[in-house]
Amino acid sequence: MNRRLLPSLLIAGLLLAVPASASAKTNVAVGIGDQSPAMFTDANWKALNLKKTRYFVEWNTIDQPGELQKADAFVAAARAAGVSVLMHISTDDINSQPRKPLPSNSAYKTKVGALVARYRALGVKDWGVWNEANHKSQPTAKSPKRAAEFYKTFRKFKCSGCKIVALDVLDQAGVERYIASWLKAAGSLGNKARIIGIHNYSEVNRKLGEKRSASSFKRYPGTTRIIKAVRKKNKVAKFWLTETGGLASFGNGFKCDRNRQSSTTKFMFSLIKKHDKNVERLYSYNYFGNGCTPAFDGGLVEANGTPRPAYNTFKSQLKNTQR
Fold first, then answer.
1. Within 10 A of 304 (CB to CB), how many other CB atoms are there?
2. Residues 238-260: tens digit of each pLDDT
3. I want to staple 103 with a disulfide (CB 3.0 to 4.6 A). Which of 107, 130, 287, 320 is the partner?
4. What is the pLDDT of residue 3?
5. Which CATH number fits the domain that encloses residue 288?
6. Number of domains within the chain
7. Residue 174, domain extent
8. Residue-wise burial string across 187-208, b where 16 or more C-beta atoms lie within 10 A, e elsewhere
């Protein structure tokens, strides 16, 4: 044997010996969103060694001392733990019927601008213009044009070094039309938007693949079609899964089942492997469960901090992601 070939052969052998898990590592950074600052002192959360979280605030929180105090406490706790916060603007009447009207652009500028000034000074550099804009719980659901106007307004705030989730949508029927309308209204600014947020709960919890019926695709478009809808006009955006996760329970569609939650949590991680060329971040929601009540429970641990099967799955899958 030609000895000059030995180094090359040895290197090739070593490369073949690298575990499959190492080659499967994605470039997606993972965090957990929650509304409780107690998460940052929980031993099981600390064991995950996460560096990102998400918190949503009502657009007029600056006028609500109680809500402002909660946001202050969360940001302070995250900062003390060395965790960066994605602060997402949301409605102030998520459970109200009928919906309150959308804030005017001037009101958004004043109230949200004050929040940006307050929390940018405390280190918050990641912001979402409006949470889950196309969902019926949000007053932006029927007005992608107004959601686009809010983005234009947000861009004018003094927020040095900030990253902005320009549009944030749920994977539900009609999402592609909503994206098209938003892009048209946002114009060149929308075409150049750097970050688009996705909530892909339907795809994750129904474990939907590409081979399914046309009716299923219409009802649950999924991550791929959302990305394609944005790409029709915007070729530069990266995508953040700003809210996703395996659900322990949710309404009549997902009865309490912690083992199913573990399985769908694993499926969630398989999706970011599939989309890691486009997806930069994933924020699972949320950390603390609420007793598996029908309203919504996506907690990785019980209310007292006891890990669920989904927590162990989440932890094991983290080794193939970024922080």
1. 8
2. 999 999 999 999 998 899 999 99
3. 107
4. 39
5. 3.20.20.80
6. 1
7. 24-320
8. eeebeebebbbbbbbbbbbbeb
